[in-house]
Amino acid sequence: MNEMNIVSEYDIAIVGCGPAGLSAAINAVIRKKKIGVFGTEFCSPKLHHAPHVDNYLGFQHITGEDLRLKFLNHAKDMGITINKNKVTGVFPDKKGFTLQSRDKFYLAKSVILATGVSTLKPIEQEIEYLGRGVSYCATCDGPLYKGKKVIVLAYNREGLEEANFLAELASEVILVSLVKEKDSQGIRLSDNISRVNGKPQAIIGEMWASGVALENEKIYADGIFIIRESVLPDQLVPGLEVSQKGILVERSGATNIPGIFAAGDCIGAPYQLSKATGEGQVAALSAVKYLDEFNYSNKEEAEKVSASV
């Protein structure tokens, strides 16, 4: 991977800016680690919509929005900023892990997943065709479809932006938009984008995905791009072990991949604030311990190499 593509390097990269992610960030900063926090345009919408929170210790009779702002202000006061670039993949690297966000890449020695629970489930055959005609990243895979016909299933504003990007490469873009009208304001679609109304039901094809089944019709193309707010954890991190309840972790927050930890709603119920913030702290402390051991191991390796020269 070209070093010129690397935007930043971190000790700990935290994917998610809800209660678990911000708790992890605050505790990692206290332990003097260089962190990067990746989040959406609006951190923790679920908390924002809670009319009352009565079970968070020390903050009785508080609204979800007020508590959300307290979390964000705490992070801001500690110098923590939120990177709004959506992470679409986390891959092993000789220095730890590479996080991809469109055409940007970030390096991290360890990663904490705090992605919450996605309310949007994969459509039928989506996972089976991932990498075989189905993609979650237009910037990553768009060049493969230069001069070809593609379908974009847009679940958010980013999906409309990705459709415009693909319109510069593809011969034709078919857009199925599930974006609310207020969220699409200000975006002008390219002339070679045609819109089709309907709710996606399934990916269709044989060895390779060839189209999408909507409620009342089927549409066909050479490639299909599905753009949602978040990517399912096991698709975000290849090889990550998950169950129907969430990401599988040890008590320390460690996943099956050394150096990757998880916290909050993404590891399963109960979906409670106190649990999320506590797990965020545990994951951060575990990542710090991992880094300390990692650095010590690297130092030992360097000393062995020096001694043998």
UniProtKB/TrEMBL annotation:
<dbReference type="InterPro" id="IPR050097">
    <property type="entry name" value="Ferredoxin-NADP_redctase_2"/>
</dbReference>
<keyword id="KW-0560">Oxidoreductase</keyword>
<protein>
    <submittedName>
        <fullName>Thioredoxin-disulfide reductase</fullName>
        <ecNumber>1.8.1.9</ecNumber>
    </submittedName>
</protein>
<dbReference type="InterPro" id="IPR036188">
    <property type="entry name" value="FAD/NAD-bd_sf"/>
</dbReference>
<dbReference type="InterPro" id="IPR023753">
    <property type="entry name" value="FAD/NAD-binding_dom"/>
</dbReference>
<keyword id="KW-0285">Flavoprotein</keyword>
<dbReference type="Pfam" id="PF07992">
    <property type="entry name" value="Pyr_redox_2"/>
</dbReference>
<dbReference type="GO" id="GO:0004791">
    <property type="term" value="F:thioredoxin-disulfide reductase (NADPH) activity"/>
</dbReference>
<feature type="domain" description="FAD/NAD(P)-binding">
    <location>
        <begin position="10"/>
        <end position="280"/>
    </location>
</feature>
